[in-house]
Write a structure and sequence with these properties.
Number of strands of chain A: 2
Mean pLDDT of chain A: 85
Helix content of chain A: over 70%
Structural class of chain B: alpha/beta
Helix content of chain B: 25-40%
Largest interface: A-B, 28 and 38 residues
Radius of gyration of chain B: 25 Å
Low-confidence stretches of chain A: 386-396
Oligomer: heterodimer
Strand content of chain B: 25-35%
Distance between the termini of chain A: 64 Å
Largest sheet of chain B: 6 strands, mixed
CATH topology of the largest domain in chain B: Rossmann fold
Amino acid sequence: MSEFKAKLSRMWLKYKETDGFHTLMGSLFAIGVGLLIGIILIVLVNPSESGEGIFRLIKGFMNHPRGAWIGLGQLLYRITPLIFTGLAVAFAFKTGLFNIGASGQYTVGLFAASMVGILGDSLGGFQWIIAVFAGMAAGFIWGAIPGIFKAFFNVHEVITSIMFNYIGMYLVNGLLNADFLRTRVVNGTTNRTLVVDQAARTPYGPFNAIFPNSGLDISFLIAVAAAIILFLVLNKTVFGRELKSVGMNRDAAKYSGVNEKRALILSMAISGMIAGLGGALFILAPSTRNLGNAYAIENIILPAGFNGIPVALLANSNPLGVILSTIFIGHISLGGLSMQSVGFVSEIVDIIIGVILYFSAFALIMTQYLGKVKDRIAKKKQDSLKTEDVVKEGEE
Amino acid sequence: MHNVIEMQHITKIFPGIVANDDVNFTLRKGEIHALLGENGAGKSTLMSILFGMYIPEKGVILKNGEPIQILNPNDANEQGIGMVHQHFKLVEVFTILDNIIMGAEPTKYGFIKRKEAKEQILELCKQYELLVDVDAKIQDVSVGMQQRTEILKMLYRHNDILIFDEPTAVLTPQEINQLMITMKNLVNEGKSIIFITHKLDEIMEVCDRVTVLRRGKVIGTVDVKDTTKEELSRMMVGRDVVFTIDKKPMQLGDVALEVNDLTVLSDRTKKHVVDHVSFQVRKGEIVCIAGVDGNGQSELGLVLSGLIKATSGEIFLSGEDITYKSIRYRNDHGLAHIPEDRHKHGLILQDNLANNLVLKKYHIEPFQKHGIINKAPIMELGDKLIDRYDIRSGQRLKTRVGSMSGGNQQKAIIARELDKDSDVLLSIQTVRGLDVGAVEFAHRQIIDARDKGKAVLMISFELDEVMSVSDRILVMYEGQIVKNVMANDITVEELGLYMAGVKKDIVYPDRLSEPMIEKVEEEQAHE
C-alpha cells in the first residue's frame, strides 16, 4: 500500500513538472476567476435571490426535475455535437490551422446524413451507418477546400473557412428549396426537413437503460472514441507528427521530407470530417420522445461550429481535454437555464464563459508574469543591498 | 581613459544552466572591446543583461562609476546604450528614414518633422561616413545597408556605448571591411564599442582589448597587441586549436552526384539564377562551390535538395535521376543536407531537441513501427548525438531548440545530417555562427565523412573555409560555373578574381549554353 502511495506521489511530482499540468492549472484558475465574476454579477443584479441563483448555477445538470442522474444523461446528450465541433477546432489548432469553418462543415455533414436518412430507405439496417459516413465525407470535402486554397494559393484558412460557412449554409438551403428535393424531404408547413427514418437513427445502445428517456444515444461514445483516436494520432503516430510539424514550421517540415501541401489539406479535411460527423450524429439522434431532430431552413449559420472554438481553447486543444471542457460548459449552461426561473437571465453564463476564455488565454502568460514580478521585487531588495555594499567598498 | 561601463559580479541562471557566473567586465571610453567565447559561453546573455533584456540574479552595473538600474531596453537607451542585434530589428516596408526615427520621432503638434530628421540623419551619415539611401525601403536594400541603418538608429538616439552582436556573420568580405572602418570612425568620435564575434582575425584587426568567456566564466581580459590568435583560441576553448587541417590524400570513388545542364529561372526577375550548370562530385572528395553571396549558390542548394524545382536539366544521385523526385525520396536515398537557413528550414524551433535530431528519420524503422512512433530509439539516438557532437543545452533532449544558442542549433543540424547514412552530403554555410573550436570540429567531421567515402558538396561564402577544407573548387559567378580547379592549384588572390567575375574559364565547354560562350567571346573581343 505504502509502495503504491510512494509510486503515486512520484508520478504526481513528475506530472507537476509537465506543460500539461501548467495548462491544466491555468484553465482551473481561469474557471475560478470566471465563476467569481459571475457570482459577483448575480449578487449585484438581484441580492435577495442571489443565494438561490448561485446555487442553481453551480448545481448545473443536477437541477433536472427528474433528478441529477437523468440530468447527467441529458447533459451528455446536449453536449455531444459540441464535443465534435470542439474536437474539429482543436485538431486544426494542433496542426497550426484555425478552422473557423466548423459550422459550415457541421451543416453540410448534417445535410448529407439527413438526405441518406430520409431517402435511403433501401439501405435497411445499414442506413444509419451509411448516413454517418455520408456526413463525414461531406465534412471532409468542405474542410479540404480551404485547405487546398491555403496549400496552393496561400489564402489564409480563416478567410476561406469563414466564407465556406455561408456558402455551405446557402448551398444546403438552396438545395432543400429546389423542387426535386423540397417535395420529398421538406415539411412545407414547418419549413423544416422531415425527420429521418427509424432505421437511420443512431441506436441508444446501453444508454436507454442507464439514463431512461434522457435522449442519450451512442453518439456520445463515438465522440469519446473520436477524442481518443485524435489524441493518439496527434501524439503517437508518424502521420500526426508530420501534420504537427507542418503546423509548427511549414518550411522545416517540407525540408524534412513531409509533403506539406498534402499535410495541410489533410489537416483541414480531417477537421472538417469531425465537424461533419458531429452534424450527422446530431440529425440522426433518436432523441427524446422519439420524434427525432429536424433541420430548420433558415438563413442562419448554425452556432455549433462557433461554440466549438471556446471549448477547444479552454482545453488548450487537447482532444481529451475537449471532453472535459465541453462537459463543464454544458454544465454551467444548464445551470444558467434553471437560473431563469428565479429571475436571472441565462446570458450571465455567456459572460462567465467569456471571462473564462479571456483568462485561460492569458493564464499561462499571467502565471509566468506573476513569477517574474515576484523575482523582480526580491531582486530589487537584493540589488539595493548590494549596491550599498559596493558603494561603500568604493568609498573605502 | 576611464571606465564607462563596469559590470560587477554578474550571475544569470537559466533552467539547467548558469549562463553567467560571477562575471566582471569593464568597458573603457573610446575603445573597441571584443567579447570572445564559444557558442553558448554566455556572451549574448551578458550583453542582453547590459541592454536590459534579462535581469541578472546577482550583480551590479556601473556607468561612469555610478550604479545604474537597467530593467528594460528603454532604460538602456536612456543610459546611452545601443545594440545592433544579430538579426536586425527593422520594419521591412518602412524607409530607412522611418526606421531610424521610429520611437524617437521629432514632432510638432503631433506631426512628424521628417525634413528636419532627414537633415539630421544626413549629417550623421557624413560625420561617420555611413552610406545609406534614407528614402529606400528596407526590403530593397542590401544587408550591409540594413546594418548601417541599425548603427544610425543608435547614433540618432545619441547612444555612446554601442554593442555589436556578431555583426560580420551576415556580411560579404567587402562589407566587413567597410564595417571595420566605420567602427574605427565611431571610436575616434568618442564612442565606446563592445564587439561580439567568433572571428579572431577581426579582433586582431580592430580591437583594443578582448575579454574571453568560457562556460559562463571570465577567463581573462587581455590587450590585443600583447596576444596572438593562437593564445586567444586557447583561452576560448581551453586547448590548442589547429587552424590548418591535415587531410589524407583523397581516394576517389564512383560519381555520386551528377548535375547536367541545370537551370533555375527566378520567378521574380525572370532571369536564370542557376544558368546551365554542370558538374560531378565523386565519392571521397570534397567539392566546394565558392563565390560571393547572391550568385546563385543558394538556389543551386535549394534545387539539389528539392526545395525548389529545376526549370530544366538533370540531377543524378548515385546514377539515379532524381530531378523530379520528392524531398523525402532524396532524403531516404542518400542525400544529407545542411541547409543555409537553419531557422527557416533546418529546425522546428518550438519543438524539443530530441524531435529535431530525428526530424528526417522518424518515419523509418526503428523509430516507428506500423505508423506508431517508438520513443525509446529516438531518445537513444538523441543521447548519442548530443554526447558525440557536444551539443550544449539546458535540459538535454527536452530543451526547446529555440532557446538554444545559435552555434548549438547548428551543431544539432550537423549532428543529424552527418549521422544520416548517406552517400552525398550537401552542406551550405556549414560553420555559420560557430566558434573556432566548433568550426575545427565540424570540418574534421566532414573530412572524416569524405575519408569514409562520402561525396561532399559544400557551398561557402567564406574563402578561409573554401581553401582549408576542399579538395576541388568550383567558382560560381552570376549563376554559372566559371572555374573548376583543384584546391592546391590556385591561390586565394586568383580565386578572388574568379569570384569577382574578372576572370572566367569555360568549364565543360561542350555542355555550356551558347550565350555564355558568346559573352566570353564578346568580352575578349572587347579587350
